[in-house]
Amino acid sequence: MSETAQAPAAKAPAPDSNRWKALSFIALAQLMVVLDATIVNIALPSAQQDLGISDGNRQWVITAYALAFGGLLLFGGRIADLWGRKRTFVTGLIGFAGASALGGAATNEAMLLGSRALQGAFGALLAPAALSLLAVMFTDSKERAKAFGIYGAIAGGGGAVGLILGGFLTEYLNWRWTFFVNIPFAAVAAAGAYFVIREPSGSRNRSPLDIPGVVLSTLGLVSLVYGFTRAESEGWGDTMTIGLFVASAVLLASFVFVESKVKAPLLPLRVITDRNRGGIYLSLGLAIIAMFGLFLFLTYYLQIVKGYSPVKTGFAFLPMIAGMITGSTQIGARLMTRVPARLLMGPGFLVAALGMLLLTQMEIGSSYATLFLPAMLLLGLGMGTAFMPAMSLATLGVEPRDSGVASAMVNTSQQVGGAIGTALLNTIAASATTSYLKDHIGGASNQAQQQLVQLQAQVHGYTNAIWFAVGILVAAAAIVFTLVTAKPSDVAPSAGSVDGAEDDVLVPVIAH
C-alpha cells in the first residue's frame, strides 16, 4: 500500500545552461573510477611477477581498492553534503590522480597495495559527489532520465572496457600504465568540473558528522573481508580467522545500534529497511560478489592456461560488454516502465547464472567459440537487464534528505560485494586447487605431467568457485522475487526524490 506525501510547491529554479557539458566531465570521472576497478585485473599477472607478490596476497591488489571504496562511500557522500559537492568532486579527482601516480611508481608490494587503498578512498569522495551533482543539475524528469541513463551505462559497461584497455596498456607498454592512464582522465575531469559546474546554493546538509558510524562501519567491513582473505592461507578453522568474523559481526551490529540512536546518522536505517531498496542493495551486492570473482578467474585462465596475450584476453571479454549494452538499453530501459522490476531483475540474474553455469564445464582444452562466447553473452545480457531497473529504483520513495546516502548505498553494495567476492571465491578456488594437487600430483612421473596436473588443478579450482557463484546469482534472483514489489508506475514518482531536491519542491514520497 502506498501513500503520497507532498511538500509545499514552489517554482523550480531554471536549469543550469552548462549541465550537459558538466555531464561529460562527470561521466569521464565515473568512467575512470569504474575502469580502475577492473583495468588492473589484466595487468595483475605481470605486476605480481614484477613485484614478487604471493598468490595468497595477489587479490589484495583488487580488494584493497574495492574495500576502501566501499567502506568509505557513505562517509564520502556525507562529506559532499557537508563540504560542497563540487569541491569534494574536484578534491577526489586530484587525490585519485596522485594515488594512481604512486601505484604506477610502486617498487614493492606494500607500496602498490597502499596506492590501491588510497585510490579507493579518493574514489569514495568523488563517486557520491558525482551522483549528487547530476541530481541537482538535472531537474527535468526526461533530462534526468537521460543523464542517469548515460551515467548508468558507463557504470555497467566501463568495467568490461577496463579489461580491454588494461590489455593494450600491459602488452604494448607495461602494467604500470594501468595506473598512469588515470592521471590525464582525472586532470581533464577536474579542470572541466572546476570551470563548468555550478552547484546550486542552499543544498548542503550541515548536520554534525557521525564519526562513530564512520569508524564502526569501516572497521566492520575491513574485518569481514580480511577474514575471508585470511581463510585462504590459514584455513576456516584458524583462530584469527574466526576472531575476525566475530569482530566484524560485533562492529557491524554496533554500527546498526549507533545509527538507530544518533540524531544525524551516517546511514539512516529507514533507507535500508524499505523492502524495495533493501532488496535491491542486497541482490546487487550478491551479483557483484559473483561477477568480480569471475573476472579474476577468467583473466588467469585465459592468460596462464590458454596462453592468451593481455590484449587478446581483453578482447575476449567483448561479448560480455555487448550483452550488457543490449540488456541495459534494449531490454531494461525499454521495459522498466511497463514491467514490474522483479520481472526484469530476477530473470536477468537467472540468465546470468545460466551463463555462469556454462563456465563450470571449463577444461584446459575448452573452445572459446563454443563455451566462453555464449557464456559471456548470457552473463552480459542478464546483468545489463537486471542493473538498469535496479539503478532506477535505488532511491524509490526515499526522502530528499536521505537520497544522497541511498545513492551511495548502491555503490557501497557493489564495492563491498566486489571485495568480498574476490576474497571469498579466490579462497574457494585456492582450497580446491590445493586438494586436487594433493590427490593427483603423485601420479605425475615427469616434469611435463606435473605441469599438466598443475594446470588441471588450477582449472578445477576455478570451476569449483564458479559453482558457488552460480548459487550466489540464484540467491540474488530469489531475493528480488521475494522483496522487490515496485510497480512500473513507481518509476516515475521516484525520479522526484533524488539528492538535492529542496524541501519546498513538490516531492512524492512513497511509504510501503
From TrEMBL:
PROSITE patterns: MFS (PS50850), SUGAR_TRANSPORT_1 (PS00216). Its main location: membrane. It holds the Pfam family MFS_1. One of its GO terms (molecular function) is transmembrane transporter activity. This is MFS transporter. The chain crosses the membrane at residues 25-47, 59-76, 88-106, 118-138, 150-169, 175-197, 209-228, 240-258, 279-302, 314-331, 343-362, 368-391, 465-484. It comes from the Bacteria. GO terms for biological process: response to antibiotic. InterPro entries: EmrB-like, MFS, MFS_dom, MFS_trans_sf, Sugar_transporter_CS. Residues 22-489 form the Major facilitator superfamily (MFS) profile domain. It is a multi-pass membrane protein. It is found in: Cell membrane. GO terms for cellular component: plasma membrane. Keywords: Antibiotic resistance, Cell membrane, Membrane, Transmembrane, Transmembrane helix, Transport. The keyword Transmembrane applies.
